[in-house]
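Box 3.1 — From sequence to structure: Glycosyl transferase family 1 domain-containing protein
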Amino acid sequence: MRPLIFQGPVYGASGYATAARRFLLALQALQVTPIGLNPLTWNCGFDAGESRQDLLNLQQMEKTLAELPRSQACLLHWSIASEFLGRQGCAQAIGHTVFETNSLLKDFVSGANRMDGLIVPTQFNQNYFRQAGVQVPMGLVPEGVDSEHFSPDGPGLKVLPQRFTFLFMAQLSYRKGLDLVLKAFLELFAKHDDVQLVIRSYLRDSTPKDLDQVRQFIKAFRDQEFKGQQNGHIYLLSNVADSYMPALYRSANVLLAPHRGEGWGLPISEALACEVPVIATGWGGIHEYLQPDHACWLNYTLEPIPPDVPDLFLGGHLKQARAEGHLLAEPDYQQLKYAMWEMYRNYFVYKAQAMQAREFLQKHMSWQQAAQKFVKWMETQA
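Predicted structure (token representation):
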């Protein structure tokens, strides 16, 4: 295998950055080839809180970058596909990207076809990317989960009250379904003092101003949909570093993920690794690791992105996807409410499902296995 130059956002807590960091460290641990790191800077939300050893390993790869013969190396560009520029002076260029709709943006297709090949984490992306016009070879390299770090053993977050806890973890985006979560929770549990909804979310960068915008959205939603009623325990967390994420998951009884589109769904796999039951829309990249009997899958219909969704809650890519006619999955709202009530009333039935899911993830979805699959696929591209 050629020396590798990894170009991606490894310092940050977005799903992209977390996956990039974990994959890169697992690949380095295999010691199959020298690796140089060219980190991309993304303004991507919460503090990652990397361990000291991880930081040292990443910094060492940054130093190695200057020592590698670029003209003989393979570039692995881990980013959004519109940023792919081809080989950039390297002997070979492989891209890694995901997308969450039933297609791929036109400029993403162009970027993907500038590369020698592409790796994607799911068959969902493989199929839709090919239909959209991606012509280069595509390898299937699923993401992983660190089941030692994300474990059911250990304490929870002490700052949270002791109630039955629904957890929502995602950017404030139409695609992630916070509006559905808020509505379902308040309709079901506004008068239940023993139930709470805990939210870890951000709009852009998780600064105090940014979190205040999320808080204002929640208040505006209450005002508009529930005439300003203040019943119902809803907590918006400030910055919780990634090193404390297992404790946050262990503080939850159920993870809510009624997404309208998901390329992978890192919080879903991490929650299940902590044996936290999950309610998720049964569409998208989750099929790569989530079995139907390991979580509650919500039914859905594929629908256009509504024209009245504010651009602020779409971002540039979904705004473009709307203009290009892409579809997203609209989950069955009544089924979401039923599933939430069922898990509240019969929790240990669903806890047993999550325990089975952890066993599956431990056996099949480690980051080491992801790195090994990448190496094996690269051998076919020599």
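Summary of the box: Residues 164-364 form a domain with the Rossmann fold fold (CATH 3.40.50.2000).
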